[in-house]
Design goal:
Layout: E1 6-9, E2 12-15, H1 30-37, H2 44-64, H3 68-83, H4 91-98, H5 101-109, E3 147-155, E4 166-170, E5 191-195, E6 201-207, E7 212-213, H6 219-226, E8 232-233, E9 236-242, E10 249-255, E11 274-275, E12 278-279, H7 282-287, E13 295-302, H8 306-321, E14 328-330, E15 336-338
Parallel strand pairs: 3-13, 10-11
Antiparallel strand pairs: 1-2, 3-6, 4-5, 4-9, 7-8, 9-10, 12-13, 14-15
């Protein structure tokens, strides 16, 4: 592998301008030359990632016979996407979501055994200002939708309770809007954090979620319209479940029978995450100061340890490695990287 040395210009270290020798720059050589120039370092994971991104991008251009005009449109689209990003809106996350990339990356990074709760995408509306709630509190302010009580249980796959875990949940209101989409937002709403009890249980009030469109007034929305896709997500509730020593679970529960259950714009719905609501009933209504006709959801979440997750990720990545190039190894994090030649 070519190595670069540093020289001093104006008393500041600079990368040697010579670098590797590249000649005859044409359609047949540009890919290997670009990979060669990007290989002047010893970060083996980064080396592998850059090799692959250059190879796949160049293969895409070659296979599609990409035109200059099409590339300019793509550059403008990416520029517009960046301009739509802010502290409360991430257009690039939306782009990743509608391409199915977010769900794929989560599945690769956080594989689950069959007896654990499966993950799904985070989505663009999570915030870090959610307030911690007490058992039986509501995360929803008045008038935000039909009341819903959630009784949850968190255990390991074998049923061992997990106490003092953080359950971060959020969802849209009855207008299909998240609190961050309102211009006058001055505090978190429709979101909260609750800790599990000694037996792994938790109780929280919220409201019944409804279907809603992702923000589609930007470049991602224009792309969806261009390719004849709708912008809607089925009714769902987001969860992030965390406790030291356990693999963080990012997931969501989806309403079974929702009009958009089988056409979620961001590919988040998974069969094992579908729920059906019941009526609360007299006994629970009295206990939690609600009405018998309010909605009720009971769910058992199962998470695995960080050690088990790392082992499973290593095994799956090792299987994938057999289908990749021979000069790759798994690093200490269990992800493939380039294997330097002796």
């Amino acid at each position: 592998m070519p190595s670069s040395t540093k020289v001093k210009i104006n008393d500041e270290p600079q990368i040697n301008p010579k670098g590797p020798i590249i000649t005859e720059m044409n359609e047949d050589t540009i890919t290997k030359n670009a990979i060669l120039v990007n290989s002047q370092h010893t970060n083996m994971r980064l080396l592998f990632l850059l090799q692959k991104v250059v190879q796949h991008l160049h293969d895409f251009a070659i296979e599609t016979r990409l035109t200059t005009e099409e590339w300019e449109v793509a550059i403008q689209f990416l520029t517009d996407t960046g301009k739509m990003c802010s502290d409360i809106r991430q257009e690039y996350v939306l782009l990743s979501d509608i391409l199915g990339l977010s769900v794929l990356v989560d599945a690769i990074s956080h594989p689950k055994p069959p007896n654990a709760t499966i993950g799904t995408l985070l989505g663009p509306f999570h915030t870090h200002d959610a307030e911690e709630k007490h058992q039986g509190d509501s995360i929803s302010s008045e008038g935000r939708g039909e009341p819903l009580l959630i009784e949850g249980l968190l255990t390991e796959p074998d049923g061992t309770p997990i106490p003092d875990a953080s359950i971060d949940l959020w969802h849209c209101d009855n207008k299909g809007m998240y609190d961050t989409q309102y211009a006058n937002r001055d505090h978190p709403d429709m979101r909260g954090i609750i800790k599990t009890k000694e037996d792994g249980s938790f109780v929280i009030k919220c409201s019944r979620p409804v279907p809603y469109p992702i923000p589609h007034d930007g470049p991602v929305g224009k792309l969806l319209q261009k390719i004849n896709r709708h912008p809607y997500r089925p009714s769902h509730i987001h969860f992030i479940i965390e406790k030291p020593g356990y693999d963080r679970l990012i997931t969501a529960l989806y309403a079974k029978g929702d009009p958009y259950e089988t056409s979620d714009v961001v590919f988040g719905v998974k069969d094992s995450l579908l729920y059906t609501l019941d009526k609360l009933g007299t006994e629970k209504a009295k206990k939690y100061d609600m009405n018998p006709d309010d909605w009720y959801l009971k769910w058992h979440f199962k998470i695995i340890s960080e050690e088990e997750a790392k082992k499973l990720r290593y095994e799956k990545n090792k299987e994938a490695l057999t289908r990749a190039a021979a000069n790759l190894v798994l690093n200490s994090d269990g992800v493939p990287e380039h294997c330097p030649l002796d």
